[in-house]
Structure formats: C-alpha cells, structure tokens
Amino acid sequence: MSDYLIQALFAGLEPMRLFFLVVGTVMGIIVGGIPGLTALMLITLTLPLTFYMGDANALSLLIGMYVGGISGGAVTAVVLGIPGTPSSILTTFDGHALAKSGKVEKALAWAVFSSFVGSIISWLFLATVSVPLARLALKFGPFDLFGLCLLALMTIVAVSRGDFLMGLISGFFGVLIAMVGTDPIGGDYRLTFGILDLATGFDVLPVLVGLFAGGSVLSWAFGQEERATKDAEPFSTLSIPIPELIRHTWSLIRSSIIGVAVGILPGIGGNIGSIIAYSAAQAQSREPETFGKGNLDGIIASEAGNNATVGGALIPLIALGIPGSVIDAVLIGALTIHHIQPGPYLFRNNPEIVYVMISAMLLASIVMLGVMWYGSQLVIYLTRVRSSILFPFIAVFSVLGSFALANRWFDVGIMAAFSVLGLIMTMGRVPVAPFVIGVVLGPIVEKYYRVGLMATGGSHLPMLTSPVSALCLLAILALLFWPIYVRHRDKP
Amino acid sequence: MKTTARILGVIALLASFIGTALGADYPQKPIRVIVPLAAGGGSDIFARMLQPGLQQDLGVPVVIVNVPGAGTAIGSRQVLTAGSDGYTVLLNHVALHSLYALGKTDFSYKDFAVVAGTTAVPNMIAVRADSPYKSLADLFGAAKEKPDSIVAGVNIGAPNHLSIALAAARGGGAKFRYVQTGGATQTVTALLGGQAAVGVLTTADAAPFRDTNELRFIAVLDDDRNADYPDVPTAKEQGVDVRMVLDYYWYMPKGTPQERIDRFADALEKLMNDEATRKSLKELLIDPTFTRGKDAEAALAAGLSATQDAAKAAGLGKK
C-alpha cells in the first residue's frame, strides 16, 4: 500500500513526463483563460499529436491540460467578469465584484488557491478510494440525478437575490432556450422551425461566450463598459492571511467534496460542480445577501467546486473505464490509441499507467498553483490594458471558439445573437446568471425526470422512496419555504 | 492537312481540360473528410488512424473535420450539399440508415456516391455478469412472461435500440421496458449500476469488459461468431435471425466523377490491406473488412432495409 502511494505521488516525476506535464498545464491555463476556448478543444486538438508520443508522456500532457484548463478560466472570470471556461460562470459573480471594488489580488489569490485545494482534495479521493466510490456512484438512478440537478437549479434563487422575479423570468427563458434542438428521448426535433442546423440546439459554449464575452464587447462598443481597472500602483504579490484561511477552511473542504461527488456521478458534468457548491455555500452562509457582491465563500465554492470535478471524474475512468466527463471520454480515446485497454482491469493490467495518471493529476495541481500564483503579476496587467486593445481580442477569440466547437458558422451566428441579447439584458438590468444556469441545467433536469419516469413506468413514487432524491426534494422545500417561515415568525 | 492538325490540336487541348475536370490529376488540393460525430469519439479516432496512410497514398493533405450534431444529420447534410469535386468525403455508419428510417432526414445513402465500406463492428446483447439471463431464450422468455418489466437501456431511436427491438420482434415478440440511457458509456454505467437489465454494445465498445466478470454477452448480432468473442453465440444460432453490424462507409456527394471516387476507394482498399493498419484496428476489436462498388451498394441496401424493419418493430417507423 505504501508502495502504491509512493507510486501515485511520484510516477510522473520522470523528466520527460514532467516536461510534458508543465507544457500541458501552462497551455491549459492559457487556453482556459481565453473566453471561447476550452480545455476540451485543446485536448481534442492535441490528441492526434499524441499518437506518436509515449503513453506516459501523452497522458501527462493531456492531464496537465485538463487541470490547467479548468483552473485558467478563473482568471478572466475575476479580472474581466467573463468566464474563461463554462465551469467558471459562478466565479464571475463574487470574483469580479471583489475585483471591481479594487481587490483584484485578493480575489485572484482565493480563486487560485481554491482551485488548488479542490484539485488536491479530489486527488486524495482519486488516489485512495476510487474503486469503492466509483461502484457507489453507479447506484445513483435517474431520479437521484434529477433531484440533485433540480437542487442545483435552485441556485437561480441565490443568484437573483434582490430582484427575484426578474431572476426567475431570466432562468425560465434559459430553460426554454435549452429546450430547442433535439428531444433527449427519441431524438425528435423540437422548436427548430425546420432549420436543421438548430437540431443541435443552442450549445452552452456559444451562448455563454455571446452573453458574457460578446455582451461585454458590445457594451464597450456602446460606451457602457464596466471594468475592474487598477491604477498604476505597484502590485503586491498574492497572499492569503492565515486567519482568513482558517475562517474559510470548512468552505474549501465542503466545496471540494461536493465537486468530487458531482464529478464521479455519471452524466452530470463539471459545470455543475461549482453550481451546487455555490448554492450549498450560500445556504450555509450567515450572510447570504452578500453573495454576488464579492463574498469570498462564493469564489471558493465555484473554483474549489469546479477543480474538484476533475479528480472526481477521473475516478470512474480509472476504476471502471467509464468516462466521468466529455474530456475523460477523450482521455479514454488516448488510452486506446496507445494500446491500453481502459476498463475494470486497467489497474491490474497496466498499473504503471494508472500511477502516471494519478501522479500527473497531483503534479499538475502543484504546477498550476505555482504558475498562477506567481504569474498573477502578468494577469493583473490585464486590468491595465486599454479596452480598445483588449476587447477586439476578446471578440476575435469569441468567433474562433464558437466556430471551433463544431466547425460551422452557425455557432458563430448563435454567439452573435446572444451577444446582442447579453447587451439588452445588461441594459435592462435583467440578471444574466439565472439565464445561464437555466441553459446549463434545464436539459439535464428534463432528461433525468423523463428517464426516471420511463424506468418506473410513469410512477413518481420512487422519487420519494429513494433516499437521495427524497433528500434533495426535502432540501428544495426547505430552501423555498424557510425564508417565508422566518418572515412570518418575525412578524407577530 | 494543316486544318486536320489544328483540329486535332484543339481536340487534344479540350481533352486535357476534360481530363482535368474528370480527375485525371486528382487529387491536387487537400481533401476534407467530414466526421459527423464529436472529436475524440470512436469514429473520430478511426478516421484519424487512417488519415496518415490516406495522405501518403493520395499525396495531398487529408483533413479530418468534426461536424457533430443531431445524430450525424448535420455533418452528413454538409457533404450532401458540398461540391461534387471529390474533395469532400463523408465517413458515417448505420446512423445514416436509422435517421432516414425514422424520418429525421430526407436523404439516405442513395443520395450520396458510395465510395467504399471499411470495417465491420457487430452489436451484441449484454447483461450484467450476475444476471439470470444466459441466452436469448432466457431473456425473451422472461420478457414475455412479464411484459414491460425488464428494463432495456437504449438510446431511443438509435441503432442500439433498433437492434434489440428487432431481435425481440423476431424472437417471438418479447416486450421490454425501453428506457433512454444513451450510447456505449451510458449503457455500461446503467448495466453495472443495475438501472438497466439488458443493453446493446458493439464488439469494440465492449472491449474493456471482454474477459472480465462484470458483463455477460448473450448474443452477437452477426451471421458468424466474432473472432474476438468466440464464446458468444450468434443470435441466428439461437433461432433469432438478426444481423446488426455497424460498418463505416465513405461517401462523396452525388455527381462526383467516377475516376475520383475510384481513386479514393483505391487508397482506402490499399490501406485496409496494409498489415500495420489491420493490426491496430484489430487491437481496437474492429474487423478490418473492405467492400466497394456493387458489393458495397448491396450491403448498404440490406442494412437500410434491416434498419427499416427494426424501426417498424420498435414502433418508430416513418409515419
């Protein structure tokens, strides 16, 4: 066992592996930080190049990109309020709010550190209990996943505090937009108005890039920009005071564990780890009204939550050969190309490659922390770049990323349309976040609800008898009615 | 005499133009191969495995372009409407049939110029290793005894659904409870987690679970047993005549000059007979077969008609 742990720690330390790992992590951070480009694109583009590399080097490179890509998104989310990757949507709220109030360094420090803690905690689970956890996760039925995602959808309430009705309407339209495309069951086209290109629906990426990045570009073009800027004062290096760290320890751990759990579960996806962690953070907070206005727990939840899904999603891959996310599916492809058969016997047949993967996850997290912590000087420089230089770049990458998604101009059109919508929403003070959460979660909630009903022959009863879904429904009720109860109790 | 020479000269000149137009010196620029599925998936990896060999033989870059969406409909249609100059190629499998059989596209393989068929990957019916069903008779018997109780995890309307629906219809009309599950990954997850009692996997998809004590394969839906799964009996052996084999076909837009189609098919044929290629395909448990011309057309016709039967059996046929 101790030999196993030593391997899991150090198998990636061979010089060439380490070289590819650092290259991968740095590329991941950069691509992850650019709105419109995602870790998935980077990894799928790199995959053919790894045909000619050794298996351990290839996996070190790809896992570095995975960890770096998820982490890099936080930077643009904090500094520009534009999520670099879809999983950093929620970092824009508190991270960017804090940055706008002049505390860019503090927001960045926490975003980077939380990413690191999320990665490390998920690595601990990956390295120690992956097999039993993967088996346990298989037991979750469609109603359980439905309950969890519905609970996550409650985040709409959390992120639209202040103007609840507007938030609800915004979220509703998000869900509606997500309905366009192909019915998840049976594959009939719906709301496509006979346009075959719409059959894939509105992918999260062009919608998100349009609303956030495109919307910001248009806001700037129309002279409505709101940016976190920093005067020419000298930068202080990132730091986190110990008392602050102690105060937020529980928040870090809770968010990471939620991220791991979401990562392991089949068919939910990484974006949702940060959403659920965020809503848990707010539900537990003593000052929930400060969320979205620069609350540190908000940043922690989002960034620890999304990074922890990386290790979480690797768990079923390593234990059973089942990919926990789209990126993991590509990693499985990488294994097969290198003549390694993923599956329940991966560890028995190719222990060395499992060690390399687990070790790469750990080393990539450490490299990511180092690069982002000390590279932050460079990042903060972004706040000084003139808008007339910065925004054209963002526009170019928004077009590139949307096109690269499926190699078609149609997605660029979608991105452009949502840029206009983003501008209108900002001008009309309609919160964008609930809309995005609706787009991300709507389809999953719908799918698992209907799949659950198919499995039970139309009965809702098992939703209440399965402990996980029952617990989720109970939590939803509590979230809905607790504030009303409190108001009535306080009023005589 | 002079005039004749002039006329001959003009004819020669014209001929060289026609020759160019017909593909005498095809290919001269990069060829795009549209993979209508996501990058990193099985089809994509297959295309990218063949890409270097094709490039070498054809002498021009071969670019793999992923155009995923709507169960391959979007990428396929891009090729349908592309220029018929031999520089746009589609790689697709049985999904092209099932989309048409279900009325989701208004074009079938007949609307393309068929280049060639490569590889064959049969579907298998899978249960969990500790399942009481050891044969199709067990499974269909239980399903007939208690209709609509055994959960079959499938992707509604997709080849895996059609496979088991056709087998059930031809095996005496057993009724399963079909639950939307998805593709190979989701099927494995649902089987191992107990959300589904039966599912369908291709021999390649099932590779991670071959010789493990996790899953049991009770029938292979092909005419002969599969060399990689010698112990799995065919459905035919068990009295159920079903063949559901996922094979990849290469298409060009209708109207592409035959010389260019042949040139690309030659390159594919050479590649599929290449030892190194055969070896790496076999490692993925993909049978490196090759068909072209009349044989390919006949196999496609049989595939489409089986898919239409299956759609009818599943109650999903074109209305």
From TrEMBL, chain A:
<feature type="transmembrane region" description="Helical">
    <location>
        <begin position="140"/>
        <end position="159"/>
    </location>
</feature>
<keyword id="KW-0812">Transmembrane</keyword>
<feature type="transmembrane region" description="Helical">
    <location>
        <begin position="164"/>
        <end position="182"/>
    </location>
</feature>
<feature type="transmembrane region" description="Helical">
    <location>
        <begin position="18"/>
        <end position="43"/>
    </location>
</feature>
<keyword id="KW-0472">Membrane</keyword>
<feature type="transmembrane region" description="Helical">
    <location>
        <begin position="353"/>
        <end position="375"/>
    </location>
</feature>
<feature type="domain" description="DUF112">
    <location>
        <begin position="18"/>
        <end position="437"/>
    </location>
</feature>
<feature type="transmembrane region" description="Helical">
    <location>
        <begin position="202"/>
        <end position="222"/>
    </location>
</feature>
<feature type="transmembrane region" description="Helical">
    <location>
        <begin position="63"/>
        <end position="86"/>
    </location>
</feature>
<feature type="transmembrane region" description="Helical">
    <location>
        <begin position="257"/>
        <end position="281"/>
    </location>
</feature>
<feature type="transmembrane region" description="Helical">
    <location>
        <begin position="418"/>
        <end position="444"/>
    </location>
</feature>
<protein>
    <recommendedName>
        <fullName>DUF112 domain-containing protein</fullName>
    </recommendedName>
</protein>
<feature type="transmembrane region" description="Helical">
    <location>
        <begin position="464"/>
        <end position="486"/>
    </location>
</feature>
<feature type="transmembrane region" description="Helical">
    <location>
        <begin position="107"/>
        <end position="134"/>
    </location>
</feature>
<keyword id="KW-1133">Transmembrane helix</keyword>
<feature type="transmembrane region" description="Helical">
    <location>
        <begin position="313"/>
        <end position="332"/>
    </location>
</feature>
<dbReference type="Pfam" id="PF01970">
    <property type="entry name" value="TctA"/>
</dbReference>
<dbReference type="InterPro" id="IPR002823">
    <property type="entry name" value="DUF112_TM"/>
</dbReference>
<feature type="transmembrane region" description="Helical">
    <location>
        <begin position="387"/>
        <end position="406"/>
    </location>
</feature>
TrEMBL record, chain B:
<dbReference type="InterPro" id="IPR005064">
    <property type="entry name" value="BUG"/>
</dbReference>
<dbReference type="InterPro" id="IPR042100">
    <property type="entry name" value="Bug_dom1"/>
</dbReference>
<comment type="similarity">
    <text>Belongs to the UPF0065 (bug) family.</text>
</comment>
<protein>
    <recommendedName>
        <fullName>ABC transporter substrate-binding protein</fullName>
    </recommendedName>
</protein>
<dbReference type="Pfam" id="PF03401">
    <property type="entry name" value="TctC"/>
</dbReference>
